[in-house]
Design goal:
This protein has about 375 residues and is an alpha/beta fold. About 40% of the residues lie in helices and about 20% in strands. The strands form four sheets. It has an eight-stranded parallel barrel with strand order 4-5-6-10-11-12-13-14, surrounded by five helices. A three-stranded antiparallel β-sheet has the order 1-2-3. Helix 6 (about 125-140) crosses helix 7 (about 155-175), helix 11 packs antiparallel against helix 14 and helix 13 (about 315-325) crosses helix 14. The radius of gyration is 20 Å and the shape is globular.
Length: about 375
């Protein structure tokens, strides 16, 4: 019996819309989770994030275990209380950051040993320690198993080895997690771009049994077309009655294509990272507010939005803030971008419910292709 009920309310082709019910609130799917790496969605207050329509955010095990430490967060009452976010939180396992950020990382059957990118201090992250940090110290609602990530392209032998280690770590993660009523544990499918390896991964993980299943190991260098080809088969390899979460993705066009192929949940740093660098996402693709053509543009980013950042400030003013390197520019563009991603999810949920996702997808692809990046 899964910890959180997942009700699929409508489907349109392979896409579906539904609700994942947690003790801290309902998560409407397809869902986009703003990334709160170090206990904050960068540049925004939790009230601003909630007002965009976000039902859930993501917290980062690696960053929080290093600073301020998971033990300190626990002493402060857990991550929800610490950062004043009352809705659900999903935490990643820390595996991705260990591989990408740490100065030195060594993987063995038992654990991954690494040096902090902050001060070079040595740490050991095992499946059991990752579960302890996420579930017991941070107190997240959705906990991810520890997995091993391989950047692509990579030799198939290395991809297969990492996938099988991830499956073994999945079992250890499940044993450490045990049975809980108020928290859920998600597995992570690996296997690179290989359909056979992905199938083996999915079968191994389903034998163990999890509350949800993520598609991991994508958006790591393989490119949009290769990722889409994997999504042509990967979601269908996972249980249809549980949430499917595509980790670290991504651009709006990637999200639309993944939803069309049956994915339910997403996270990415892109909205806030783009905002901090002067980029705004719109229905006609991304625009760069640094461009001189916006210097006297009196039109806001989205006059129909109920989010002040999108509705109340002209592109000319945003251009000025970005050129002057004013903090407010980063705040407003991050806020707008998070709101845009949430509006995108809401529009897709409505399109699926009304059986018109294919038309939505076609129109979105057509408009986005004419963007100014």
């Amino acid at each position: 019996m899964a910890a959180f009920p997942f009700t699929i309310q409508a489907s349109d082709g392979r896409a579906r819309t539904g609700v994942l019910s947690t003790p801290r609130g309902e998560i409407r799917t397809p869902a986009f989770m703003p990334v709160g790496t170090a206990g904050t969605v960068k540049a925004l207050t939790v009230d601003q994030v909630a007002a965009t329509g976000a039902d859930i955010i993501l917290g980062n095990t690696y960053h929080l275990m290093l600073r301020p430490t998971a033990e300190r967060v626990a002493r402060m009452g857990g991550l929800h209380r610490f950062m004043r976010w009352e809705k659900p939180i999903l935490t990643d396992s820390g595996g991705f950051q260990v591989m990408s950020l740490s100065k030195i990382a060594k993987v063995t059957e038992q654990a991954v040993t690494f040096q902090s990118h902050l001060d070079g201090s040595r740490h050991v992250l095992s499946p059991e320690r990752s579960i302890e940090i996420q579930a017991d110290l941070l107190g997240s609602d959705i906990v991810m198993q520890l997995d091993q990530l391989v950047g692509l392209p990579a030799p198939e032998e290395a991809v297969a080895e990492a996938m099988r280690l991830s499956a073994r770590w999945g079992l250890r993660s499940k044993n450490a997690f045990g049975e809980r009523d108020s928290q859920a544990l998600f597995a992570i499918q690996q296997g690179g771009t290989s359909e056979a390896l992905r199938k083996e991964s999915a079968e191994r993980l389903q034998e163990i049994g999890f509350d949800g299943y993520a598609i991991g190991g994508l958006a790591v260098g393989e490119g949009h077309e290769a990722m889409v080809e994997v999504l042509d088969f990967a979601p269908a390899q996972l249980p249809p009655d549980r949430p499917r979460y595509l980790m670290g993705v991504g651009k709006p066009i990637d999200i639309v294509e993944a939803v069309w192929r049956g994915v339910d949940m997403f996270d990415c740093v892109l909205p806030t990272r783009s905002g901090r660098h002067g980029q705004a996402w719109t229905w006609d693709g991304p625009i760069n507010l640094k461009n001189a053509r916006f210097a006297e543009d009196e039109v806001p980013l989205d006059a129909d939005s109920d989010v002040p950042a999108s509705r109340d400030y002209s592109k000319a003013y945003l251009h000025h803030l970005v050129k002057a390197d004013e903090i407010l520019g980063q705040v407003l563009l991050s806020w707008h971008n998070i709101a845009f991603f949430q509006r995108l999810m809401a529009e897709m949920r409505a399109a699926i419910a009304e059986g018109r996702l294919e038309a939505f997808r076609s129109d979105f692809r057509r408009r986005a292709s004419g963007s100014d990046t």
